Amino acid sequence: MVEQKKKVFDYREYQLKDTVEKVKLDVDGAELEIGVKKLGHVRKQKLISDCYVYGTGTVGFDHEKYGREAMKMIIVDAPWGPTNDMFLMSLDDSPLTEALATIVPDPFSVGNKLEDLKKD
User: Which end of the chain has fewer CB within 10 Å, C or N?
Assistant: First the structure.
């Protein structure tokens, strides 16, 4: 009987990489290319926790804050420079706002495969 070697566990496979992915967005017929980084599991969970709003006997979720803060974390290269509160507040309800919203990870989606949890 031939003994098969087991794969050696390497934690580095599961760590966030310092890579920037170029994403092309359609903004009212024009192409916008921006650089984004993945929002890691721990940072996403921290952001979700920070976006809960507690009232007297109620709990809510501030979707606007989540979207704004997620954009600031993941957009690392854009024609306008840093994606910060000043830039985001300068936008009106426009095709650019809608296009940027498409890259924000859903706060409540949970991956059911190992690959969804893998940090690359």
Answer: N
